[in-house]
Amino acid sequence: MAGLLKRIWTAAYPPEPVKAEDALRVGILGAANIGPNSIINPAKSHPQVIIAAVAARDPKKAQAYAKKHSIPIVHNSYQELIDDPSITAIYIPLPNGLHYEWALKSLQKGKHVLLEKPSVSNASQASALFHLPLLSEPNTPVLLEAFHSLFHPAFQLFLSQIEKQNVEFASVESTSPKYIFPNDDIRFLYTLAGGTTMDFGTYTILLLRNIFGDEPEECVSADLKKMPKGYDQNCESAVQAKWRWKNGGTGQMDTDLSRGVRMWGGLLEWIPWVEIPRAVVRHKEVLVPCEEDGKEHSVVRTISMLNFLLPMFWHRIRIVEEHTIRNTSNKKTARKWTEKQTKTAYKWEDGSGKKGEVWWPTYRYQLEEFVNRVKKREGSGIWMDGEDSIKQTQMIDSVYQKAGWPVRPGEV
Ligand SMILES: NC(=O)C1=CN([C@@H]2O[C@H](COP(=O)(O)OP(=O)(O)OC[C@H]3O[C@@H](n4cnc5c(N)ncnc54)[C@H](OP(=O)(O)O)[C@@H]3O)[C@@H](O)[C@H]2O)C=CC1
Ligand SMILES: O=C1OC[C@@H](O)[C@H](O)[C@H]1O
């Protein structure tokens, strides 16, 4: 508990080193709710990042945001901000449906771009954006889809426990209690490329793709729950989907942005319900060397993680191995036992010397790698490249297509 409080406190009030001469000067498009957590606060402890400017549709809103977060420059429009030659990088926390337009415009101005997830509205836009000819030129700007959880050591530790080829079944769940997001939130507006699959769903999809280390062959089922009557009927409040991978394994997601109590046939659904994001991965049964004559030894390994989304606060990785000794002749079970381990990681503990502190939030780890790329430093090696982002959107689209819903709108 003391460790948890210390992590939260230090993340909220981090040490603030003097900024370097060559610090990135970041401009934020929109006075977004997520800004303080995702970049403004993490930037305080990074000597090479200055949050230099913000723009909002309403300049008064931008001024209030700038004052609250000590941002020195306020621009009157998004365009004016990206035209500012003193700004070297743009952070885009706009509604999903505006990501493509503003990422493209920012890159064309030569700015590095940290682009909120999901990168864009659909796979056509992703392919157009991440295959932009200018991104293959020398000294091209850096473009990163901001999948912050991926950069945290706990997320990577979880993945390192998995033998990807051997995964038989994976289940990933992430939910948010009812009423956190109002029914007319940007997350539930089709024209802004909303939908639960686009929001929390993107994390579960990212994790499934990383668990199998590959793309699925087919989306085998997708069940979307429409928003309540009176709200956007092209957006889903919840989604359950299942895919099959080449190795025969199946993976499923269960994501809900307005989770209520699931009892008595939904009678209590109006009561909000809190669940920790979780993932469970089961390996196929494998034979391991057996020292006993006439016997064989098999193991089924299950790896689970609680709180893969924001592991910096708290998380648990559990590894359970079910061992069975059988007679080789008749396959009868001679003996069974279970071995359990629990692991956590708030900083890199693989002896590699990678940078990090136990109090660094996922967003701080992400910012470290973004700057490393811009500065052409090796860093932790964790990255989300353009092809990865394109495949994300393909898997998101597969949910809507399988359910017979329209993929999210967005022209190229
Ligand atoms: N990485 C993470 O942990 C998180 C990521 N996100 C992602 O960040 C993005 C923004 O989310 P969040 O901060 O919660 O969103 P907000 O509701 O705060 O909206 C962000 C900004 O969108 C701008 N905007 C522009 N056009 C519109 C419009 N037509 N309607 C409404 N807003 C508009 C507003 O800018 P202005 O100030 O100019 O009015 C607003 O400040 C999303 O892509 C989301 O998926 C969200 C939460 C967490
Ligand atoms: O990215 C996100 O992470 C946190 C959630 O609250 C939010 O819905 C989502 O956009």
Automatic annotation (TrEMBL):
List keywords of the entry alphabetically.
Answer: Oxidoreductase
Source organism, top-level taxon? Eukaryota
EC assignment: 1.1.1.179
* Stored Pfam families: GFO_IDH_MocA, GFO_IDH_MocA_C3
Can you give the residue ranges of the Gfo/Idh/MocA-like oxidoreductase N-terminal domain?
24-131
Q: Does the keyword Oxidoreductase apply?
A: yes
- For this protein, what is any one GO molecular function term? D-xylose 1-dehydrogenase (NADP+) activity
Keyword Nucleotidyltransferase applies: no
- Outline the extent of the GFO/IDH/MocA-like oxidoreductase domain: 177-256
Q: Which Gene3D superfamilies match?
A: Dihydrodipicolinate Reductase, domain 2, NAD(P)-binding Rossmann-like Domain
Catalytic activity reported: D-xylose + NADP(+) = D-xylono-1,5-lactone + NADPH + H(+)
Family as reported in the entry's similarity comment = Belongs to the Gfo/Idh/MocA family.
PANTHER family, alphabetically? Answer: OXIDOREDUCTASES (PTHR22604), TRANS-1,2-DIHYDROBENZENE-1,2-DIOL DEHYDROGENASE (PTHR22604:SF105)
Protein name, per record: D-xylose 1-dehydrogenase (NADP(+), D-xylono-1,5-lactone-forming)
